Amino acid sequence: MDYLWTPWRYHYVTGSNAPNQRPGVPPELAAWPDDKHCVFCNLHSSAEYGAAPPPGLGLTPREADSFAHIVYRAEHCFVCLNAYPYSPGHVMVIPYVHQHSLVDLDEATTDELMRLGRRAEAVLRAAYSPQGINLGMNLGKAAGAGVDEHLHLHVLPRWFGDTNFMTVTAETRVLPETLDMTWERLYTAFHP
Asked: What domains are there in the chain, each with its CATH number?
């Protein structure tokens, strides 16, 4: 018998997240005192706090981003791993501004969002040698957005045969590396 080991999905699959847990805040950054009520706003804010906290936490910016799985920060957007990836290397480009609509983003943020999408494509091609790349946004619940209040651009490598019976029959994806391994690979690729 073969086993699929995906411990990072446990809380997602069982719905057993702690009731007081702030979405997007890694346990290692739990000292962050705020809650922005958005998984992406919490994610980048708690990582910024972890990298520059009051005395006591003492993480480097790289360590804080590692816990938050943020692989790159730019002026208007950041790139992070998808916590529930469709394939190894699945990243999202996310504006810092909390916005649900692409038409409501300012031009500088929109331009950077697309430039980082292009850069993510290049990084994924170099790091994974995929046979294809998916880039896309789901704006609104009806369009399939899991987080519909804060837009984000998915960028993920694809291979022939990467969707198989596991996805169809068990709603499970098989990933050959942990999120920490993916983060290390992509953080290094984004910071040559």
From this structure: 22-68 (no CATH), 70-192 (3.30.428.10)
